[in-house]
Amino acid sequence: MTDTSISPDSAAAVAADDGPLVEDFIALLKPRVMSLVVFTGLAGLVLAPGHLHPVLACVALLCIAVGAGASGAINMWYDRDIDAGMARTRNRPIPGGRMEPGAALGFGVTLSVGSVAVMGLAVNWTAAALLALTIGFYVFVYTMWLKRRTPQNIVIGGAAGAFPPMIGWAAVTGDVSLMPGLLFAIIFLWTPPHFWALSLYKAGEYAAVNVPMLPVVAGRDATRRQIVLYSLILVPVTIVPWPLGHAGAVYGAAAVVLGAGFLYGAFRVWRERSDRAAKGLFAYSILYLFLLFALLMVDALTVGLWGAA
């Protein structure tokens, strides 16, 4: 029998003759991931003491967005073989045959260098250094080193997604302190239960492409235990800004209520052992992080308005 399979690189070379569309370059940026990165970066800007000119604040957010998109593009270039074997990613520009791998790599590298340079020249070099660290960590530590080698890929690699509020804070202050460290810790601890919930009902796809996600390597029950463990650590950390005086009682009460919902979802995953429970926690985790950071910003803006009155 003749082998009619086509490698991701071959498919891309065949279809890319017509040239990638604008939509394909946008897809390389992983817009949904980028939106959360920008939102948490905005939180860092809003919560930081001091003032940054609105134009420079917009430049800082744009650089964070472009840097995140650049990381996504390089990730898609490197992981094109994995993407081709998974249902949820096989239609991305490279495995879908609409873009050559080299074009994606060049796009990502150009945006990486440009975002860091503009951040440094227009805002400050502390924020630029943190942005460069974020891109480098996601590309070299998570994508190229951890993802294919260890089930702890999400735990350690989650640091890349936790840096944006620190970048936003540094854009205003030129340094980092306890509060951006807390924001980092919240996202860092949130990432494993968030992604492990996804991996529970996508375990077969990860196994098919030899990505050692925790359910594939340690089993589903071990993954459920880890989700509960990280959730039990995460929720108290989200409350810490309140007693330390970095957030008000409204945020504190909301963090308790939202955290109770997160713990309910985690224990439901453990108790029911169903894909439905895992999907429910995954969906709630996104809303959870969004609401926490939104409430922190509302709290900071409200206090600022009252203080100016």
Provide an overview of this structure.
Helix 7 runs antiparallel to helix 8, helix 7 runs antiparallel to helix 9 and helix 10 runs antiparallel to helix 15. This protein is 77% helix and 0% strand. It folds into two domains: 153 residues, Orthogonal Bundle (Tetracycline Repressor, domain 2), CATH 1.10.357; 128 residues. With 309 residues, the protein is an all-alpha fold. It is built from 15 helices and no strands. The longest helix has 34 residues.
Task: Please describe the topology of this protein.
Elements: H1 8-15, H2 22-28, H3 31-47, H4 54-78, H5 80-84, H6 101-122, H7 125-146, H8 153-162, H9 164-173, H10 178-201, H11 203-208, H12 214-217, H13 220-239, H14 249-272, H15 275-308
Q: Assign a percent range to the helix content.
A: over 70%
What's the main sheet like?
A: none
CATH H-tier superfamily of the largest domain: UbiA prenyltransferase
Radius of gyration: 20 Å
CATH topology of the largest domain: Tetracycline Repressor, domain 2
CATH architecture descriptor name of the largest domain: Orthogonal Bundle
Q: Mean pLDDT, nearest integer?
A: 91
Question: How much of the polypeptide forms β-strand, as a percent range?
Answer: under 5%
User: Alpha-carbon distance between the termini?
Assistant: 80 Å
Number of domains: 2
Q: What low-confidence regions span 5 or more consecutive residues with pLDDT below 50? A: 1-6, 11-16, 305-309
Q: Could you state the oligomeric state of the chains shown?
A: single chain
Number of helices: 15
Pattern of helices and strands = HHHHHHHHHHHHHHH
